């Protein structure tokens, strides 16, 4: 297993698709809490960060009503979560497609470049159909939590 030891805690490097990340920021899900605690280290690149900011703006009206959180607050949280730690280079233009949706490939590239152990997504049309990329599993949040209990059993 690849892991980062952070003050006697294990921090698992993961890629979080924006379809999971942005709602997690608005709703403060358990996944978001694990990222803030340092137990999960998001792997990301600039393409992913810009896409997340775009989605925050697009969904702002819907989430402000539900969560009573402004888009500017969520932009701040995103930048807090995506500090320089976990940043990887951009996907090369000549990297061959691995997903039918080329916009998914920067996430797959980031997982490989950043030695991610898991990719969390809810994209049933493309990402989840892949099941894995070069041995890195791709699954929904509930699948990830099941995986992490096996990969990192509690003593």
Describe the protein.
The chain is α/β, with parallel strands linked by helices and 155 residues long. The chain has one domain: 5'-nuclease (Rossmann fold), CATH 3.40.50.1010. The protein is built from seven helices and six strands; from the N terminus they run E-E-H-H-E-H-H-H-E-H-E-E-H. It has helices at 18-27, 30-37, 46-67, 71-81, 105-113, 127-130, 141-151; strands at residues 4-6, 9-16, 40-42, 118-120, 132-133, 136-139. Strands 1, 2, 3, 4, 5 and 6 form a six-stranded mixed sheet that branches. A hairpin with a 2-residue loop joins strand 5 (132-133) and strand 6 (136-139). The longest helix has 22 residues, at 46-67. It is globular and about 40 Å long. It starts with a strand and ends with a helix. The model is unreliable at 1-7 (pLDDT under 50).
């Amino acid at each position: 297993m690849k892991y980062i030891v952070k003050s006697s805690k294990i921090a698992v490097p993961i890629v979080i698709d924006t379809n999971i990340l942005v709602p997690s920021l608005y709703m403060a899900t358990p996944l978001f809490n694990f990222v803030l605690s340092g137990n999960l280290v998001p792997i990301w690149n600039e393409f992913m960060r810009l896409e997340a900011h775009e989605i925050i703006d697009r969904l702002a009206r819907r989430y402000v009503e539900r969560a009573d959180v402004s888009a500017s607050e969520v932009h701040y949280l995103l930048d807090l979560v995506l500090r320089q730690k976990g940043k990887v280079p951009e996907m090369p233009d000549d990297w061959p497609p691995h997903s039918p949706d080329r916009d998914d490939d920067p996430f797959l590239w980031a997982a490989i470049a950043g030695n991610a152990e898991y990719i969390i997504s809810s994209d049933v049309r493309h990402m989840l159909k892949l099941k894995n990329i070069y041995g890195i599993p791709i699954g929904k949040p509930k699948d990830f939590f099941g995986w992490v209990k096996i990969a990192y059993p509690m003593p």
